[in-house]
Batch of 2 targets.
Target 1
Amino acid sequence: MYNSKYSLLILLFLINSIVSSNADSGRKCSNTSSLVGFESDFKMVRHQLRGHLKILDDCSFHVTGFDMLSGSSDVVFWGAVSLNFSNITGGFPISDQRLNQSAYKNASFSVQLLPNISWDQINVLSIWDVVNISDFGHVTLHQNGSDSVPDSVRTVLDNCKNLSDHYRVRWSLNVEENWIEIGLEASTPATNYMAFGWANPNRTKDLMSGADVTVAGFTEEGKPFADDFFITAYSECKLNSKNSTAIGVCPDVVYENSKNGIMVNNTRLVYGHRRDGVSLIIFRKPLNSTDEEYDLPVHPTEEMRVIWALGLMKPPDEIRSYFLPRYHGGSEKVTHGHLVLNVSEKVDDCLGPLAADDNEVLDLIVASRDAPLVVTTGEALNYPNPPSPTKVLYINNTEAPVLRVERGVPVKFSLQAGHDVALYITSDSLGGNATLRNATETVYFGGPEAEGVVASPHELIWVPDRNTPDQVYYQSLYQQKMGWKVQVVDGDLSDMYNNSVLLDDQQVTFFWTLSEDSITIAARSVKKSGYLAIGFGSGMVNSYAYVGWTDDTGGHLNTYWIDGKHPSNLHSTNENLTHVRCKSENGIITLEFERPLTPSCNDSGKPECKNIIDPTTPLKVIWAMGSKWTDKHLSERNMHTVTSQRPVPVLLIQGSSEAQQGLQPVLAVHGFMMFLAWGILLPGGILAARYLKHIKGDGWFRIHIYLQYSGLAITLLGLLFAVAELQGFYVSSLHVKFGITAIIFACVQPMNAYLRPEKPAHGEDASSKRLMWEYFHVITGRGAIVVGIAALFTGIKHLGERYGAENVHELGWALVIWFLVAASIVIYLEYHGRQQRGRLRGSSNWVLGNVEEEDSVDLLRPNQALTQKGSDSSGVMEVQLEPLNR
Ligand SMILES: *[C@@H]1O[C@H](CO)[C@@H](O)[C@H](O)[C@H]1NC(C)=O
Ligand SMILES: *[C@@H]1O[C@H](CO)[C@@H](O)[C@H](O)[C@H]1NC(C)=O
Ligand SMILES: *[C@@H]1O[C@H](CO)[C@@H](O)[C@H](O)[C@H]1NC(C)=O
Ligand SMILES: *[C@@H]1O[C@H](CO)[C@@H](O)[C@H](O)[C@H]1NC(C)=O
Ligand SMILES: *[C@@H]1O[C@H](CO)[C@@H](O)[C@H](O)[C@H]1NC(C)=O
Ligand SMILES: *[C@@H]1O[C@H](CO)[C@@H](O)[C@H](O)[C@H]1NC(C)=O
Ligand SMILES: *[C@@H]1O[C@H](CO)[C@@H](O)[C@H](O)[C@H]1NC(C)=O
Ligand SMILES: *[C@@H]1O[C@H](CO)[C@@H](O)[C@H](O)[C@H]1NC(C)=O
Ligand SMILES: *[C@@H]1O[C@H](CO)[C@@H](O)[C@H](O)[C@H]1NC(C)=O
């Protein structure tokens, strides 16, 4: 008992506090203002705002039937002196109530004025979006007559009925004056007609035939129209040119041609607008028309069948000067329908605003590469985000259109808007130099110098780049709200990036733009896939991978260091990527990112810190694609299904890939020269020294010298070629290491030949110095050849790895065969020499390290060799370099 009383008390207290907080009963209000009791509907400007205002007393007002689509988070009741742009933008909030609900549907509430605000400060009461400086709707309070022209437009009629989810009919009836005012409201494209009318009461099916309808819509210029139609057949309007009769869905005037002087066009347009993608057209028609043939009488108190439709219009052409409806198609209740209506019954089943598209673009200008955009100013007639100054920007004679530009495609402005309008492209939606409003903005283009007049247009080119946001604004630097939106869409990747190459198999295109210390990279596959990965490295293993994929939450890009073939070898890295994007268009994945060339860390424990891009060396790029990726729980399923077969070395500075150019000619020359030197001349010279000693005089020696020197010269030339082509000298690869060693050995030879000690006199034993030298010369010489040959082979291998030249294998085998043939000749010569010696001495004299010229046997002229052998029997160490002594 006590409990229930107690809770009742609490309940009463709660109710009281709720009521009092709403009505703010704490403040006593007088009723002195002449505006107390004033009532008016709001004039809709945007956001499908409808409602009725009543001023209650000196400090509050009441709003009923309030509909509004949500605006920004800062929509307020706003007071202003007048409706003109500077006065209304210079207005002030009149209450601390925020209208930030998602959507208002037939709401009613009381609003308290701020304590320091009184009605005499307010001539215009607006619902105002502070963020976008946007008037959603207003009431003019006719206080001092400055805005004395009443808004005759009513967007609310007495009744409203939903025809479908996107189509409503509103009407007001005046039986005494014999008219009905009908408002057709639909969220439908501007190119669609809205049709509504009465069916012939004698019909129960095929309701269209004999029906009297009104067709309403907007012309291309955005002007509303409403025409009186009569349906004679279930078809589009057809004219018979022989007897000039019409059949189908035709305007009344087409049937009659007003030949009897009867007015057949009896529908009068009252008002029309298109806001937020919703068309509203109000027209008036007589209930009882004087035209009995093509109009049906509307009985105000009877139930009558009405029909309606939405569909595409056929614009006027040379033959017909009317908009004609096309067959609506579609299904019942969506594009067409019928119902029974008694127009004198009160109906209002329209709750809240129609689902509308706030971002509907009425005027769109698409910039193209070569067409200049002529920027002028003109009168504000239909500015998309009212209010606006009286003068606004026109582009190509369109008032404040949405401008669509493509990233990477230059936009040419021809500025003719006058010296007082400086165009700029800004992140700020209002323009007029946001700094002056204490706001921040990013200026993408233009500025004080971007102005010109018709007599001398100023041409400027703006290139939106890949980092330009999707939406920016073109505005004047000196006046707010003269321009409107710029939609920045992705252009062709090839427009947005300076360079591109096709990766292996031509399945993935790699795009990049190099800047001083960063690089922007994009990759796109030609095939559909669930993810796309590119990697820097020679293979999947030991590569830095960038994986882009999309899912329900959008596009993602992750970076990894891969050090094995198993999913567990995939290590997520933390690279400092910026401007990351990944999107999938029809299953084709494009990923984009920007990264510093050198990571800003030097923590050796983190692999990503070693992921340095050096633009001067070719960047090896590989790719992989697969069906599904996730940033958690990677498994075998995430492993690639298609990959590149080989890395493509990308020359970042030159803007090409090496493979695309094939084997570079200079490197080919390098290879050939080195083969000539190390495969023919230098070994030839050594063989000459060993096997041609029999040639009379110093012939063998000359051959030896010529071959070695020319070999050395060609080697040095070949080295220069390689260094010049690669624009630098990198001692990183095995090939270079072998090559350098071989060249050093080879260069030592002429020097030590110069320093060689005296040849021993005939018959004398060689001095130990001489002996040492001989050993040294021979060993370095042969060592050089061995290392040089190794350099040839590693060179070919390198060629294969780095340039992916296809014929590398054949080249390698050819080289192997060449040296095998050479080796077998040497073996043959040695064997033959051994036999000769054996015959001569009866025993082999093969001592390791003691195999010098002593063993040389001239197979071609064995006699001389024999004589020489005879005379040189003194020592096996004899080295015949005597010509040098001369
Ligand atoms: C603002 O309104 C007042 C009164 O209606 C008017 O005198 C004044 O010119 C307006 N201001 C501007 C900048 O137009
Ligand atoms: C409907 O039928 C009646 C009787 O046949 C006729 O008088 C009337 O004119 C018809 N109405 C129309 C609109 O055709
Ligand atoms: C006009 O011609 C069409 C076909 O040629 C015919 O069906 C129709 O009855 C004619 N109308 C008149 C009024 O002669
Ligand atoms: C009907 O009359 C209105 C206003 O008088 C006019 O705008 C419209 O073009 C006319 N329609 C036809 C089909 O002639
Ligand atoms: C309208 O039609 C009814 C009959 O349908 C007739 O009685 C009435 O007089 C008509 N009114 C006008 C204004 O034509
Ligand atoms: C804008 O107008 C200029 C001059 O009339 C024309 O050359 C250009 O093609 C137009 N640009 C676009 C995008 O229509
Ligand atoms: C905006 O005005 C400030 C202060 O006058 C000036 O420093 C700034 O350069 C202006 N901004 C632009 C884009 O001209
Ligand atoms: C901008 O901020 C300064 C200092 O805070 C202030 O004096 C000035 O009135 C502000 N201007 C505007 C337009 O709000
Ligand atoms: C990324 O930037 C942060 C802060 O500048 C730095 O600490 C980190 O080492 C950077 N990481 C890489 C991979 O560059």
Target 2
Amino acid sequence: MNPFRYERASDAASAVALLAENPNGAFLGGGTNLVDHMKLGVAQPDLLVDVARLPYDRIEPLPGGGVRIGATVRNSELAADRTIRSHYPMLTQALLVGASGQLRNLATTGGNLLQRTRCVYFQDVSKPCNKRIAGSGCPAREGYHRTLAILGASEACIATHPSDMAVALAALDAVVRVLGPNGERTIPLVSFYRLPGDEPQRDTVLEHGELITAVDLPELPFATRSHYRKVRDRASYAFALVSVAAAIDVADGVVRDARIAFGGVAHVPWRAAKAEAALRGVPATEEVFSRAADAELAAARPLPGNAFKVPLARHVLVRTLLDLTGQERRTNREPHHTGYRHTAGPHRWSKEGHRCSTIRLRAPGRRCDVRVSGAKSAHQGPGRVDRRERRACASWCRYRALARECAASCVAEYC
Ligand SMILES: Cc1cc2nc3c(=O)[nH]c(=O)nc-3n(C[C@H](O)[C@H](O)[C@H](O)COP(=O)(O)OP(=O)(O)OC[C@H]3O[C@@H](n4cnc5c(N)ncnc54)[C@H](O)[C@@H]3O)c2cc1C
Ligand code: SF4
């Protein structure tokens, strides 16, 4: 790690002034992402301005309705807050499926929004990466891109944004409050993040030295009926392959309004405006939900290694909307959608040294164990499924080609 200076900011104005003077400085929240990057050599700031103790640690009601979340509110406090739990359950759920208890105790609201992509090449300084070094190339296109974007990517970068919290905030029309050298400004969260274009080094529209002070959540009465569903390779401690944050308002069987955002599919938390438009004013049925998902995903441009994300995103959205409207799924009934039980087995170490978890698909009189072996750490590449056991799973599963993803979703959904 390079040497750096550490300053603890006493107030927001001095934090902003300190960074304005230092073009290679950075704010420090809980440090759970930035410090990792400093150890890896991905980030090399020469000044850290610690903002975690600034007085932005409250969750307060807004005068006109809604809630203001201070930038230094820890992820665990936010998830536990009574108002958030009752008025915006999808936000609580998104936080609780992210990282681990210890990490959530440290991670701040501001830092969570600005965490950087988990693309393996971005985190490996021995590899080229346009996001880390402009113009150096993007090995992910031809290389490992299973976890990367299917929507809104560019030739320069196909990274995905990793935050779960930001997906729920995008669906909730959150607004980010910022203080910079030129004063305060507010930015709707959906415009806060950038698509990669030709400048993938910039994740957001923030300028150097701008400090996030709060996130405002407008009142959204039907968000009390909302849900965040995340599909990932392991039951915990893993980033989303695909996630959906959704809220739906239905009266007399007809959709009055909906809010939907996808995670794990793009460089930004992907607000699904086309799907929302396709839902408004039509009966809340499975067919309509499927059409809405198709409307959004028509723009998907997957690569060979992540093509599975398109049907996965479709199924996750349809399933979430069905759950929110209290309906059973009628089509595509895989065994695991018809009363089969799924349990994650104990973690083991395989001969190759990979960490394995056993996913059991159980039904009366039948049993199939699918072993999914995950990499030892996020930096070591994809998880794998033993071939023999994959066949066993595939024989049960209508999505044979997707047996691995199917197994992964079983863990996320049921365990
Ligand atoms: C093993 C592991 C698993 C994880 N799994 C998940 C997961 O499943 N889902 C998920 O969503 N996240 C996950 N995370 C990421 C975690 O949520 C983030 O590391 C955390 O939210 C970052 O918050 P922080 O306060 O620690 O940010 P920091 O690391 O302190 O900062 C991150 C960035 O934000 C900037 N920053 C911090 N505060 C401010 C501010 N107020 N204004 C302007 N800039 C600021 C910093 O300069 C830095 O660039 C995981 C992390 C780890 C290590
Ligand atoms: S996808 Fe983006 S982050 Fe990943 S290697 Fe390519 S440029 Fe870098």
